[in-house]
Amino acid sequence: EAAFAQLSASAGYVLPVGAQVDGRGVVLPLYPLPAFGKGATLGHAHFVPDADGQVRSVHLREAGLPALALAMREAQGAPPGLGPVGPRSADDRAVAAGAWPVEQRRLLPAMAAPPLRVAASALLRGEVPEGRLGGKAILVGVTAGGLGDRHPSALLGGVSDAALPGVHLHAVMH
């Protein structure tokens, strides 16, 4: 927590907002804890599979929030990479009523190779060469198969049915 507090004080950061459906079928947003979310830019972290179960696209805006990678670009002052994102609408009222509005679905670009990965343990032990991460947008996420954030997708070098970590899909958008 102390390291995160130091990071958030020195640079802009973006946190994901998820969604959960309760027992009545009402969609509830999952916001970051206030201690972490204060001062953060928020972006949705949701992917919708196509009819065949493959993830090939993303909604640029869900529940009034830009896609996570677009929120990162916005926080860096860069233009969106997947086309213009319209102005924020009155989705806050819809979310409060249990809806999860979606807008502007776009195809994700293919990846020639997985994005650069650095193990958190190596970073914490000081094993990452200085400059390797400097000047780069950094996504922190899980890639282990058993942790549940895997999405079937053919976006990686044409490999069909590859189960890609969600953090990789967000990275390809950025």
Determine the mean pLDDT: 76
- The number of strands is 8
Strand content: 15-25%
**Uncertain segments:** none
Shape: globular
- H/E series, N to C? HEEHEEEHHEHEEH
Oligomer: single chain
Q: What's the end-to-end separation, in Å?
A: 26 Å
**Strand neighbour order, sheet with most strands:** 2-1-3
| SS content category | alpha+beta
What does the largest sheet look like? 3 strands, mixed
Number of helices: 6
Compute the gyration radius: what is it? Answer: 17 Å
Helical fraction equals: 10-25%
Descriptive overview:
With 174 residues, this protein is α+β, with helices and mostly antiparallel strands. Helices cover 24% and strands 22% of the residues. It contains six helices and eight strands; from the N terminus they run H-E-E-H-E-E-E-H-H-E-H-E-E-H. The protein has a three-stranded mixed beta sheet with strand order 2-1-3. A three-stranded antiparallel beta sheet has the order 5-4-6. It has a two-stranded antiparallel ribbon with strand order 7-8. Strand 1 and strand 2 form a beta hairpin. The longest helix has 9 residues. The two termini are 26 Å apart. 18% of the residues are buried.
